[in-house]
Amino acid sequence: MKSKLFAPVDMTVGDPVMQIIKFTIPMLLGNVAQQLYNTVDSIIVGRFVGDNALAAVGSAGPILNLMLVLFMGISVGASIMVSQFFGARQRESLSRSIGACVVLTGAASLIIMIVGPIVTMPLLRLLGTPESIIGWCRNYLIIICLGIAGGGYYNILSGVLRGLGDSMSALIYLLVATGINIVLDYVFVAYLGLGVAGVALATVIAQFVSAFLSLRRLTQMKEYFDMKKEYLIPDSDYISQLIRLGIPSGITQAIFSMSMIVVQSLTNTFGEQFIAANVIVMRIDGFVVLPALSFGAAMTTYAGQNIGAGRMDRVVEGARKGTITAMIISAVVTGIILLFGKPIMGLFTTTQELIDLSYRMMQIIAFGYIIIEITQCLCGIMRGAGDTVRPMWISIATSVAIRVPLAYILVGMTKTPELPQGNCAMMYVSMLISWSLGAVITLVVYRMGKWKAKANLVTGNS
After folding, report:
1. CB-count burial class (<10 Å; 0-12, 13-18, 19+) for 31
2. What are the CA-CA distances from residue 175 to residues 30, 169, 179, 187, 462 (Å)?
3. 216: how many CB neighbours lie within 10 A of its CB?
């Protein structure tokens, strides 16, 4: 029973929708657990330190995401390579690609540990971070950067496990780490009084635990690949393939993060209360968007394995049925959040005005959570085929070319003597519009079918 539960899922056989769902459920639960990292951080500091501390943790987010782009690029490249080599049953190539992931993650961790603490304060100043929270932001970011290897290795190694079809192990390890994070958050903040620095320290420790468990699991999967020292020696061919596949996603995330920094600077003009409200909405947003992210990642593995096995017919069928299923699930989750939104937001703060403001913002973007399933699922299919460039341009168009200027334009158009900074709700209106246009663009690009030409470039099949 245990071996069956943790066995890799072969998505090249069986009903496509059932295989996608079977693979997605552990990943979705894992994503929920991972989102708890930031959410518990916010709840603890909001309750035990105050609304300004809550704003500080949220303000650090865009900068932290910018620093993580290296890992995100490696993770996408790893998922594509591993899933295709696994689907094609190429043991040697699979082993070398996993070794390349381990080496690149170590290099990325070292770079962030050195560069991160140096650029933190200049970036916070550039954002116009209020003086009342800038010190807390700085401390939080520096601790996370110095301990970045734990989070980096967990994200990459869990991505490798998912590429092999084993999303259950990644879930179990993340649940363990989340439990550790919650306990340490409470101890460090409520009992030891370490404040924002305490939640950062708790996160780092928990992530190292999850990384260790993921590495141990990979060393046990000897029936699928070899984890030997010689595979940890950099192989230029596999390193270059990994970088080639990961660079578009890395660039996308870098541009997205920089655009969020620009948007954050606009957010900061509305003051500490709106910053705190934005943190609450984004923490809840992190949960509501999980079906889209989970199905999107599952689609990447599904497409990769089936393309590796030469089953393009299953790829197309799974893309259609999987996207419809994802939209239905997202609609249910969105409805629950709207129904119980205010009590949930009350977990973060006891300030009623802040709760009401957060709920109004969430109502604006609610419909968008159903729409983005189209973008995430179909872009996941394209990435699984080895086409990471088209999803990159879609993301850039949606998050940068549309969202950023639209936010500034709409806010500027609503400036009045009563609202000298403009209407803060326009920040969320711009988000809803960009998500909707992104879904339309994605559907058009997918139906054009040019992504299919990228299939099998990793495995070399024709």
Report:
1. buried
2. 7, 10, 6, 19, 41
3. 12
